[in-house]
Amino acid sequence: MDNPVIITERLILRKMTPDDTGKLMEIFSDTVAMRYYPSTKNESETMEWVKWTQKNYDEYGVGLWIVEDKVTGEFLGQCGIVPQEVDGVIEMEIGYLFVRRLWGNGYATEAALACKNFGFERLKLNKMVSLPDVNNIPSTKVAERIGMQVIKTINKWGKEVYVYSVSI
Ligand SMILES: CC(C)(COP(=O)(O)OP(=O)(O)OC[C@H]1O[C@@H](n2cnc3c(N)ncnc32)[C@H](O)[C@@H]1OP(=O)(O)O)[C@@H](O)C(=O)NCCC(=O)NCCS
């Protein structure tokens, strides 16, 4: 296992590398999984995503991490802490995207909860947010299950998103 950042009951979250491009494309090429994003991503766009994530690691010490099954090492998805601008301020967002055939196992909630605890306990953040499209019910349910509440809606990425927030 490379660069583990967080370990939970069933999962390992580790840093993303360019070698993950092929695995990430199972999510990014899936029109259903990408329904609330502007479009699917091809290989070069996925490589740009990895570079953007690695830039977040360098600049902020956080970013999306690769989520794997702790026992088998199977790729499950990505989840992590992503700096996002909300009304002119950089907030730390908990983000999650998982392989569609593995939805409904609680992996996103388990990973997102671990990221919330990591943010508060290890990074000493005071507040974390999630920014789901208002129509993305599975995503809003993850935010609610980890104890976040809607504080407002904003226009971001050319669409209406909820600002879910949790503070300590
Ligand atoms: C958002 C997303 C990660 C949610 O995935 P998910 O599988 O619904 O969420 P979880 O992994 O938390 O699983 C929760 C479900 O598993 C069920 N479950 C089964 N076993 C479970 C277990 N051991 N523990 C917890 N939940 C379990 C829960 O009951 C719940 O089902 P429900 O939604 O019918 O109530 C997924 O839809 C996704 O990847 N979407 C594409 C990317 C995206 O839009 N991301 C959000 C951007 S803001």
From TrEMBL:
Residues 11-168 form the N-acetyltransferase domain. This is N-acetyltransferase domain-containing protein. InterPro entries: Acyl_CoA_acyltransferase (IPR016181), GNAT_dom (IPR000182), N-acetyltransferase (IPR051531). GO terms for molecular function: acyltransferase activity, transferring groups other than amino-acyl groups. Gene3D superfamilies: 3.40.630.30.
